[in-house]
Amino acid sequence: MRMIVHIRPVDDSVGHEESPHCACGPAGQEVYLGAGEQSLGTIYRHHPLVPCREWEASAI
């Protein structure tokens, strides 16, 4: 089962939706168990609009 994790800034000036289509343009990174293996999932790191100190991660 593929996992998708979103890492979002909590104290940003705008809210971030749990979507790869969030307005901040999150960067997706595939996660692999080993070289040549099938992808286990994707981590989306959301971009803050202002410097943030609090972040949260959620898996869907």
Span of the ends, CA to CA? 11 Å
Question: What structural class is derived from the secondary structure elements?
Answer: mainly beta
* Global morphology: elongated
> Helix and strand string, N-terminal first?
EEEE
Keyword list:
mainly beta, 0% helix, 42% strand, four-stranded mixed β-sheet, 60 residues
Q: Can you describe what's shown?
A:
By secondary structure, the chain is mainly beta. The chain has a 4-stranded mixed β-sheet with strand order 2-3-1-4, with no helix packed on it. Helix content is 0%, strand content 42%.
Question: Which helices and strands, and how do they pair?
Answer:
Layout: E1 3-9, E2 27-32, E3 39-45, E4 55-59
Parallel strand pairs: 1-3
Antiparallel strand pairs: 1-4, 2-3
